[in-house]
Amino acid sequence: MKPKRLLSSALSAVLFLGFSCAAQESSAPQVRHFVSFVSASKAVVAPGKATPIQFTFRVQDPYHINSSKPLAPELIPTQIHFSLPGEVAFGRIEYPAGKLMAFPFDPSTKLSVYSGDVVIRGVVLAPTSAASGTYTIHGELKYQACDNNACYPPKKLPFTFNVSVGTGRSRQKIG
Fold first, then answer.
1. Which of 48, 43, 128 lies closest to 82 in space, CA to CA?
2. What's the CA gap between 77 and 19, in Å, rounded?
């Protein structure tokens, strides 16, 4: 084979492979993101004290997620969980009330759901022995998203936020 022809064949093969790989990538199934983490309020807590914190999540339109207290036992509730260092603890977690809505698949039954922005509130605690510093907390929102026609497999949305333990303003003394 002549060098020009060999180079032309090699270039054609590379271009073909590149285009077929790009076509495969664009036809790969897209992961659906039903909920996104928007923010966590700033949390500064002194040792031996507690302070409120809130988390905002956004349910993408046109989806909804079951509330933390669904009205049927077979529905999966929305829940928030944390992995915590020893210097930080959580007191109560307060979920918003769900909105009662009926959907085309069963107009006679109302479901308790969240849509749009969802704000979950809690209380951050620091034991009296807590060392000062900023701690990164890993959280996870567990939920099941649905639209007007179907529900999708349950998902977990990981998120992180910081809690500062120090002499900043804290609102409540622990016990």
1. 43
2. 44
pLDDT in tens, 57-103: 999 999 999 999 999 999 999 999 999 998 999 999 999 999 999 98
- Per the CB < 8 A criterion, the answer to whether 79 and 118 are in contact is no
CA distances (Å), 145 to each of 61, 71, 78, 111, in order? 11, 15, 10, 13
Distance CA 175, CA 161 (A): 26
The DSSP code for 47 is T
Amino acid at 87: E
Kindly state the tokens that stand for 26: 């664009």
Q: What is the CA radius of gyration of the chain?
A: 24
3-class DSSP assignment, residue 45: strand
Q: Which helix (H) or strand (E) holds 5?
A: helix 3-27
DSSP H helical ranges for the chain: 3-27
Tokens 């990981």 — which residue?
158
Amino acid in position 122: G
Is 0.85 surpassed by the pTM of this model?
no
CA angle 102, 106, 111 (to 5 degrees): 40
Nearest to 92 by CA among 48, 122, 67: 122
